[in-house]
Amino acid sequence: MVKQERALRTRDTLIRSAAEIFDREGFAVASLTAISTLAGVSNGALHHHFVSKAALTDAVEEAALARLLVVTDAVLPLGASRMQLLVDVTHRLAGALRGDVVLRAGFELSGEVSRPPHADLREWWRRWVEETLKQADSEGELRPEVTAPDVVSAVVAATVGFEVMGVREAEWLSADTVTRFWRLLLPTVVPAALLADLDAEGTCPL
Amino acid sequence: MVKQERALRTRDTLIRSAAEIFDREGFAVASLTAISTLAGVSNGALHHHFVSKAALTDAVEEAALARLLVVTDAVLPLGASRMQLLVDVTHRLAGALRGDVVLRAGFELSGEVSRPPHADLREWWRRWVEETLKQADSEGELRPEVTAPDVVSAVVAATVGFEVMGVREAEWLSADTVTRFWRLLLPTVVPAALLADLDAEGTCPL
């Protein structure tokens, strides 16, 4: 039992170390030796857990996806609109990308052309935004002249842009950047009556 | 003279071939052999032009920057607003990214963590957007409650998002995607009087 716990902990450490090396040096040039060194384990121990760099990378993406699901699986507070949920979750996502190297590495792997994505996080994110906006639309939270796909592409492009620019400059993932984006977008997206109830700063700060 | 012309042409072919291999396989794993093979020249000829992969990559970025400057150096038509210029140039940029592998590779190199950027195209683009919006602001083209930096971050994040998502799916760089983004953004950014004059589809289609 203790041995199994230790094995799980080593596996987690390896995933986190891989994410850190990917984030710092880039996935394609990251070496397994750099990863095992950072994790403080032998190359043999790494290969015991992951047969190849591909297997380890898939595990990083899976761990990142699990974290994305924690971000998006927010419970809609009683009486809150779908649009407020969307605003809140984009704030949570930006905060998580700032602080969580595994989530960040997972998103970066989405754009890596040297391997096919195993769990494409940007695509998962796009689908969640699409689903949420469809619900918002069916609940009358979008202006009649706006269609859900219009808003999906603006929100997904901007958030992916924040993520990509945030790799070099953390300010792009600040709560302030996300708030300013929503202040520009919300007035053309939601009816005036709903606008007054929405908080562009988000209602559940991290 | 003929010899010099041929040398210049070979250099251009190598830059274009490098961009194609970077775009297809990723910069970090791209081999000089794959590039010289695609260019139809020997490894020796490649090394005659570029002493290293780093030198060739710098040349790709420089060529991409020259193309970005062609996109942004649009002449403001008589009577046109700065905001219309911004809309038009984002359309031109999306069109150029769809069709020009060198420009696309240059933008992708901006996000490459395994090397410091030589000419960071995303940063160049951010500066051009910032400069244009400052001018728009000083000419009274922004609503009083909106500040230029708010619009800069929304426009830069969305366009970088289109570029990044466009690597996997060209639809993100379509004129339709760009038009729909501006239709959502413009009403909160410019005064009502100017809005009627602006064309979200752009006034000079490629």
From TrEMBL, chains A, B:
DNA-binding region listed in the record: 31-50
**Keywords, in A-Z order:** DNA-binding, Transcription, Transcription regulation
Q: Which Pfam families match?
A: TetR_N (PF00440)
Q: Does the keyword Transcription apply?
A: yes
Q: Which GO molecular function entries does the Swiss-Prot or TrEMBL record give?
A: DNA-binding transcription factor activity; transcription cis-regulatory region binding
Q: Which Gene3D superfamilies match?
A: Tetracycline Repressor, domain 2
Domain HTH tetR-type: start-end pairs: 8-68
Checking NCBIfam families in the record gives:
ScbR_bind_reg
- UniProt-recorded name of the protein: HTH tetR-type domain-containing protein
